[in-house]
Amino acid sequence: MQVKESTFLITGAASGLGAATAERLVAAGAKVVLCDVSDSISRHAAQLGERAKACMADITSSEQMQLAFDVAAKLSEEKGVAGVIHCAGVISVAKLVDREGNPADLDAYAKTININLVGTFNVMRLAAATMAKNTPNKDGERGVIINTASIAAFDGQVGQCAYSASKAGVVGMSLPAARELSRHAIRVMAIAPGVFETPMMGDIPDEAAQALAASVPFPKRLGKAEEFAQLAEHIIVNSMLNGEVIRLDGGIRMQ
Ligand SMILES: NC(=O)c1ccc[n+]([C@@H]2O[C@H](COP(=O)([O-])OP(=O)(O)OC[C@H]3O[C@@H](n4cnc5c(N)ncnc54)[C@H](O)[C@@H]3O)[C@@H](O)[C@H]2O)c1
């Protein structure tokens, strides 16, 4: 799968990992649709020039995401959408029982699951239906879906029941989705980032960030969004990567 002149849809593209991926793919000659619930998405797309289009959409909405894929299909000028890099997501922290003995808020739990897991399924199903119509490229490939899990899917910490479960669900869908979509020549991969320096991590106090960086075996620092983008680009071009989740974490194992 080549990046140059191909069209990709990127969710969560107004910030962090998604924004860096959009930037990298445009620099490599791709056309991109930047999709996000944030209205700053238009500004981000404008900064990337005419090969980037913005689409304000909520990943949990069937209609809004279908519209985003329609925008991407149009941008591709009949070539079809080659891939989706799905980065949109939210973090949440809540203990099952708080200090006063109150049970966790059930709606807050469901909200995290809805955005991170149901939203991912929504993006995947619409991406698959869109890309299944593509004419296969010279290697017989129709498209690639790259989801974003987290190392919390494997090493969830206290307070991460909702976040870990949502990301474990993303991990769990990778293989069955890849198996199913193989007959359409569409690959499905997921990246499980460790701790990355993005606005999502912005609220962590300096001390905590330094402690996290120190707990990474090597390199002893937080990940950079560009490093996520670099891996996303590699997954696009390397057709043997399929049905797998890649940890991108400097070897950290959360306690
Ligand atoms: N930063 C990290 O350390 C880290 C680690 C592991 C996994 N992740 C995952 O990587 C992904 C990207 O995280 P990030 O660090 O770039 O975060 P971020 O907060 O910088 O960016 C996330 C983007 O997703 C958008 N978004 C949230 N809900 C949405 C919705 N319903 N519809 C559309 N867009 C929505 C936000 O507006 C935001 O622009 C997330 O799925 C996150 O869980 C991040």
From TrEMBL:
Keyword Ribosomal protein part of the UniProt annotation: no
The keyword Glycoprotein is assigned to this record: no
The entry's keywords: Oxidoreductase
Annotated InterPro entries: KR_dom, NAD(P)-bd_dom_sf, Sc_DH/Rdtase_CS, SDR_fam
Ketoreductase domain sequence ranges: 6-194
Segments forming a coiled coil: none
GO MF annotations, alphabetized: oxidoreductase activity
Family that this chain belongs to: Belongs to the short-chain dehydrogenases/reductases (SDR) family.
Protein name per UniProt: 3-hydroxyacyl-CoA dehydrogenase
UniProt organism field: Halomonas citrativorans
